[in-house]
C-alpha cells in the first residue's frame, strides 16, 4: 500500500497569506529601477537615475529632516514614559492597574482618523496650531503602547533581588536605578526607541492632520503620487524607506531578544 501524502494545509495557508501580503511590497523596489515612468510590465530598462534625483529635491530633503526630528523626539519621549509605566505595571499591584494599562493600549484599537481628527480639534481649542510639535504629541500617544509592550517584556523576568542587594549595600533609589536597573534593561530601551522611531517615521494619518505647513516624509510622498511624472522618484524613495524600516525592526528585535535573555 502506498502511504497517503499529508498536506500541511496550515503551512500552505501561511505561505499563501505572506505572498499575498508582501508581494506588492516586493514589487516596489523592482519598479524603482525601471527606466520608464509607467508602472507596468515589461520593464523598459535598468536605471539608477531616480535614486540620483532624490538628493536634488529640496522639499523632499526638508520633509526628511522633519520626519527625523519628529521620529527622534517621539522615540525619546515614548520610551521614557514607557520605561516607567512598564516598571510600575510589572512590579506593583495597585488599584486601577488593569484599567490604566488598557487606556495606554487604547491607541492600538482606535481608528487612526478618529484619533487624528480628535487631536486636531483638541489642539486648536487650546491654541496649538498644526506644526511639528502637535505631530510629536500625537505620535507619542500612538507610539506609547509599543514602548510599554517592549519594556514590559524587559521587566517581566527582572530579578528584583539585584535591586535589594544594591539597597543593602547603601545605594540610593536613584543610584540603584541608574547603576543596576538601566544596564539590565538597556537592550529593551534600545529596542523600544527603534520601534517607536519607526512607528513615528512611517505614520501618515496623524501627520497629515497635524503637520500644517511642515509636512513629514509620508505626507510629502502622498502629495507626489498624484502626479505620474513624480511616481518613479516616489518609488525610489519608498524602496529606501522600506529597506530602512526592515533594518530598524530587525535591529530592534535583536535587542529585544537580548533584553529577554539578559533578564533570565
Task: Give the CA-based shape.
Answer: globular
Mean pLDDT: 81
Report, as a whole number of angstroms, the end-to-end distance.
51 Å
* Regions with little confidence, pLDDT below 50 for 5+ residues: none
H/E series, N to C? HHHHHHHHHHH
Radius of gyration: 23 Å
Specify the oligomeric state: single chain
DSSP strand tally: 0
Counting DSSP H or I runs of 4 or more residues, the number of helices is 11
% residues in beta strands: under 5%
Features:
264 residues; globular; mainly alpha; 11 helices
Protein model, in words:
The protein is mainly α. It has 11 helices and no strands.
Summarize the topology.
Elements: H1 9-32, H2 49-52, H3 58-91, H4 97-105, H5 112-125, H6 132-156, H7 160-168, H8 173-202, H9 205-210, H10 217-224, H11 231-263
Helix pairs in contact: 1-11, 3-6, 3-8, 3-10, 6-8, 6-11, 7-8, 8-11
Amino acid at each position: 500500500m502506498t502511504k497517503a501524502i499529508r498536506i500541511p494545509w496550515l503551512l500552505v495557508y501561511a505561505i499563501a497569506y505572506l505572498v499575498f501580503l508582501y508581494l506588492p511590497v516586493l514589487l516596489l523596489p523592482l519598479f524603482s529601477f525601471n527606466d520608464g515612468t509607467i508602472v507596468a510590465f515589461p520593464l523598459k530598462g535598468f536605471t539608477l537615475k531616480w535614486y540620483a534625483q532624490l538628493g536634488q529635491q529640496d522639499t523632499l530633503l526638508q520633509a526628511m529632516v522633519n520626519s527625523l526630528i519628529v521620529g527622534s523626539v517621539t522615540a525619546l519621549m515614548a520610551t521614557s514614559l514607557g520605561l516607567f509605566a512598564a516598571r510600575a505595571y510589572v512590579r506593583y499591584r495597585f488599584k486601577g492597574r488593569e484599567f490604566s494599562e488598557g487606556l495606554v493600549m487604547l491607541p492600538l484599537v482606535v481608528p487612526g482618523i478618529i484619533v487624528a481628527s480628535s487631536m486636531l480639534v483638541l489642539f486648536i481649542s487650546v491654541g496649538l496650531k498644526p506644526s511639528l510639535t502637535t505631530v510629536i504629541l500625537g505620535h507619542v500617544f500612538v507610539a506609547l503602547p509599543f514602548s510599554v509592550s517592549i519594556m514590559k517584556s524587559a521587566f517581566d523576568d527582572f530579578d528584583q533581588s539585584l535591586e535589594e542587594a544594591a539597597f543593602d549595600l547603601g545605594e540610593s533609589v536613584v543610584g540603584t536605578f541608574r547603576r543596576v536597573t538601566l544596564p539590565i534593561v538597556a537592550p529593551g530601551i534600545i529596542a523600544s526607541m527603534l520601534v517607536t522611531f519607526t512607528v513615528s517615521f512611517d505614520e501618515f494619518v496623524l501627520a497629515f492632520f497635524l503637520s500644517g505647513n511642515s509636512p513629514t516624509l509620508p505626507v510629502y510622498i502622498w502629495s507626489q503620487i498624484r502626479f505620474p511624472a513624480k511616481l518613479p522618484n516616489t518609488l525610489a524613495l519608498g524602496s529606501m524607506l522600506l529597506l530602512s524600516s526592515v533594518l530598524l525592526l530587525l535591529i530592534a528585535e535583536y535587542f529585544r531578544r537580548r533584553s529577554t535573555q539578559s533578564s533570565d
